[in-house]
Write a structure and sequence with these properties.
Strand content: under 5%
Helix content: over 70%
Shape: globular
Radius of gyration: 23 Å
Number of strands: 0
Number of helices: 23
Order of helices and strands: HHHHHHHHHHHHHHHHHHHHHHH
Largest sheet: none
Distance between the termini: 53 Å
Structural class: mainly alpha
């Protein structure tokens, strides 16, 4: 069988097919081969690197140690200028993430899914070397460049890993497998927190090792990534390589008979052919994909406007009020991250059974309610010390709800709302909004908190409520549906909205 464009065009688009049998989730695990398992591990190590880096970049203790204590400033430099340089250093990380997000469309479509992972792997090693050298090269300019490069690398990882693992997943397990990236991210954060303890590497001798350790995981990937298969969807739909796509599927599934998934690829091939490749500007102006774009922007922006940054800000202060001792607060933070990992596992098992929509609604709904409760308890804990215990419980519940819904599910939704020819561009939009709001929400929060204190939690409640209502009304359930099925559902909804507008 030839894999050329001419042969593929001669094949008829699947118009009338027998209804597919819905395979139970338990039966779907037959496609979870050992090959797929190690391929997931090889790809998701990048997400662990991303989690490790983001904790090192944003951790106050690490930042102060690395920037102020080991940076050589010009003699008699104004302290305000030093503070400005430190603030700029923090801002360069999300700025780099924004640049990385803008690059993802070109990288994914020109270099392929696997090629993008390999390029990002090399960039991750470079970033680790630069971060490790900041202890020896003490100029602030070098530290700022190191953070910018690390940000670019993180911006690419944020989109590249979910795209790859989502496209190699069987439809029945797509949610669980795609959310594996978020689980590895939490593992990376946990690893950084543990190694940064002063009893481990968080001391004068171990500091440079701590910063360089981010390169260990990418170094392992050097021996893994060249052997993983390219995304079958990329091979079939974008490269017109039918034989290559079949071989990749056979390798991933561990069986010879993959014609059921090949039929699905053919169906998406003809649907994507009708849509034609879309870069980011074209996607933004495409009328038939407008609701997909609006949904992506809404979810990605709301992800940072649930009150999560305020919760992190007040968590350490609240833990101190519980008389657990300032030295033990760091262990409480580690315990919280462990609970994130468990919450990720919990959501991975739920996402393909209860669905994406339920997880999002639960996450945003719980976060909105807890914002009101936290505004009350945090404000009162200065006068009623027992309120700190209530605040601690609410903080933990908030972070778990954030982890289950707003934090882990939006990338999966972005993956599923677009066909192959526009998916990378969809992630460009999602990544840009994610990193831009990461920066903006941080800046706005610190100004707002200075003005109204813990009442800033109340500002997030209407945002959570509005997002909850948007998801409830406009977002369809996408579990166990093919990408073409989801496309049809969104198209029908767009037509209904237009028809309703004309009637009105």
């Amino acid at each position: 069988m030839t894999s050329t464009q001419e042969t593929m065009d001669k094949k008829e688009a699947p118009t009338s097919k027998k209804p597919k049998k819905r395979v139970r989730l338990e039966a779907a695990f037959k496609d979870f081969s050992m090959t797929l398992l190690w391929v997931l591990f090889a790809a998701c190590l990048l997400s662990a690197t991303y989690g490790y880096n983001i904790w090192l970049i944003y951790s106050p203790s690490v930042l102060i140690k690395d920037f102020y204590n080991v940076t050589t400033f010009p003699p008699k430099m104004n302290p305000n200028i030093k503070l400005f340089l430190m603030s700029s250093s923090i801002a360069l990380y999300p700025l780099g993430g924004t640049f990385g997000a803008l690059l993802i469309g070109v990288l994914e479509d020109r270099c392929g899914r696997k090629g993008t992972l390999i390029i990002t792997n090399v960039l991750s090693i470079l970033s680790a070397v630069l971060m490790g050298c900041t202890h020896e090269v003490t100029t602030y300019e070098f530290k700022m460049v190191a953070r910018l490069v690390t940000g670019i690398c993180s911006g690419i990882i944020y989109s590249a890993v979910p795209i790859y693992i989502g496209e190699i997943s069987p439809v029945e397990l797509r949610g669980c497998i795609t959310m594996t990236a978020n689980f590895f991210f939490s593992i990376g954060v946990l690893l950084a927190q543990t190694l940064a303890l002063r009893e481990v590497l968080g001391n004068e001798r171990g500091w440079s090792i701590l910063m360089c350790f981010a390169g260990v995981m990418p170094a392992c990937q050097v021996f893994l990534l060249p052997f993983i298969p390219e995304s079958p969807r990329y091979l079939y739909i974008q490269k017109k390589d039918e034989d290559g796509a079949r071989e990749a599927l056979q390798m991933l599934r561990g069986r010879e008979d993959v014609e059921d998934e090949m039929d699905e690829l053919r169906e998406e091939f003809f649907a994507a052919k009708a849509e034609k490749p879309l870069n980011t500007p074209k996607l933004l102006w495409k009328r038939s994909l407008r609701w997909q774009v609006i949904t992506v922007i809404t979810l990605m922006a709301s992800q940072h406007l649930t009150g999560v940054i305020a919760t992190y800000y007040y968590s350490e202060r609240t833990y101190t009020y519980t008389h657990m001792g300032k030295d033990n607060v760091r262990f409480m933070s580690i315990a919280t991250t462990v609970s994130f990992c468990l919450a990720n596992i919990f959501s991975m098992f739920l996402v393909d059974s209860v669905g994406r929509k339920i997880l999002l609604l639960s996450g945003f709904g719980i976060c909105g309610i807890l914002c009101v409760l936290l505004a009350i308890t945090v404000e009162l804990q200065d006068t009623i010390s027992e309120m700190a215990y209530f605040s601690t419980v609410f903080i933990l519940l908030f972070l778990l709800a954030q982890c289950i819904g707003p934090n882990s599910t939006p990338c999966l939704i972005v993956l599923e709302l677009f066909l192959q020819t526009s998916r990378a561009s969809g992630f460009v939009i999602a990544g840009f909004v994610h990193w831009f709001m990461n920066f903006v929400s941080g800046v706005l929060f610190y100004h707002t908190e200075k003005s109204i204190g813990s009442y800033c939690f109340l500002l997030y409640f209407p945002i959570c409520l509005a997002t909850f209502l948007f998801i409830l009304k406009f977002l369809p359930e996408t579990k166990k549906r093919t990408f073409v099925d989801i496309k049809r559902i969104m198209l029908l909804r767009s037509v209904k909205k237009v028809s309703a507008t004309v009637v009105d």
